[in-house]
Amino acid sequence: MKLSMLFLTVLIVITFFPNSSQSHQNIPYCPEKSIRVYEHTSFTGRRKLIELEGFQEGEVYSLKAMDMQDNISSVVWNLPSGWVVMLHDHENGTGKTYQMKGNGSDPSTHNKDFRDCATSFSYRRGYKARWDR
Ligand SMILES: [Ca+2]
Description:
This protein is mainly beta. The protein has one domain (28-132): Sandwich (Gamma-B Crystallin, domain 1). Helices cover 11% and strands 31% of the residues. It has one helix at 2-16, and strands at 34-40, 44-51, 61-62, 74-78, 84-88, 97-101, 103-106, 120-124. Strands 2-1-4-7 form a 4-stranded antiparallel β-sheet, with no helix packed on it. A 4-stranded antiparallel β-sheet has the order 3-8-5-6, with no helix packed on it. The longest helix is centred in the first third of the chain and has 15 residues, at 2-16. The protein is elongated. Calcium ion is lined by residues 70, 89-90, 117, 119.
């Protein structure tokens, strides 16, 4: 009886307190000049790497082709200084936008009122002040 109680306690501890080093969110790696979008919060579910050099600056690209429209819930990015990536609510780059600059990650875009609504994206390289070049 005592042994089974011990076993149960150990089981509960393992279940509810997984390896504490993993309890603070692991932010996934993102290659330079890219963003990675995830279907679910906390960088889970289906994911897509968007390597920006494969796209024209200033153009608006649909996420439908990547099968990620109205679906993104977390994102990680790694951008050079001055670059800005925007997720747009609508196909043509209009509606609500979600901006990314520098290096960063967001385990839940929902917190910024951007839940499962990204339909297109665009980016710019030239936000650096002119006197800075
Ligand atoms: Ca949308």
